[in-house]
Amino acid sequence: MPTQKRRAKTVSILVVPEDKSEPYSFRIKTNIVKVLYVLGVLLVIHIVVGAVFYWKYANLHAYNKSLLTQNHQLREDNKRVIELAQQFNALEQDMRKVRNLLGVDRNTLAQAGLDVNKYEPSLLADRIVPAAKTEVPPPFRLAAANSHHYLMPAKNRSRTLPENIPSLLPVKGFLTQDFQSDGWFSPRTHSGIDIVAKKGTVIRAAGAGAVIFANWTYDLGNLIIIDHGGGILSYYGHNQRILVPERSYVKKGEPIALLGSSGKSSGPHLHFEIWKDGVPVDPKEFILAFSENITAN
Fold it and tell me: Which residue among 75, 103, 131 closes a domain?
């Protein structure tokens, strides 16, 4: 029986040109059509899958970018937290140091990390008048000046007093807040006096002594504490700049700071305190500008 060749199936495609020329046709084997169909389906699937993966990649990239931004922000926040913790620790040490210095005995000085022998009154005898002579003279205990009066330092009698007695007005200015001790009729305590003056005005030591503290504190900002011997300390707070280092000796009237508004302050002024035997006393008992009533409206 003779072998008959099977004719391959074809598909005819008629092409009609738009220029009204004669149409023409061509034939394609069905196998090729099937292959082209499969390739087209695969191409569509590839495009769809690629679009899905690209969308997921774009979202993942945006999410990763957001995570990187958050991570950077967390690092910055962590760095700020560490800095705040360090500042808090330094502040706590400063406040502990100031509290320890209020008693001014050997134990508290040693706990504050200061050289006890360096501030022993007997070793400063060549610079500071002995403790027996540092009691406040009776003429100092006079009436207080009125608030908001302009204060001028008294120079006439200051030369006759011991250099270590804090009798010199630290800065010329207006007295805006007076000394107020704790009591039944004074719910708010103010351990010193406030003198308002121009920012940057030179502040001078009220008396000769050793600088036992010259650093920043939370409440009084840049604070200076001078030990005048005999249990007498003077405080100078809210300074713009400190001019003398710790553990240095200053003379009466020597510039020690520039007036400012550091710490918890509403404006440029000097917060001035005097402590005697660990207790705050009214500075007007020492400062000659008050005892001689040198004020002006």
Answer: 103
Point out the domain boundary residue: 71, 103, 135: 103
**Distance from C-alpha of 89 to C-alpha of 96, rounded to nearest angstrom:** 10
Between 225 and 118, whose confidence is greater? 225
Strand partners, 26: 13
Q: What is the dihedral of CA 256, 134, 233, 245, to 10 degrees?
A: 40
Q: Is 113 left (phi over 0), alpha (psi -120 to 50) or beta?
A: left
Average pLDDT over residues 276-290: 85
pLDDT, tens digit (0-9, with 9 covering 90-100), for 160-184? 678 999 999 999 989 888 888 765 4
Amino acid, single-letter form, for residue 212: I
**70 falls within a domain:** yes
Domain membership of residue 287 as a residue range:
116-296
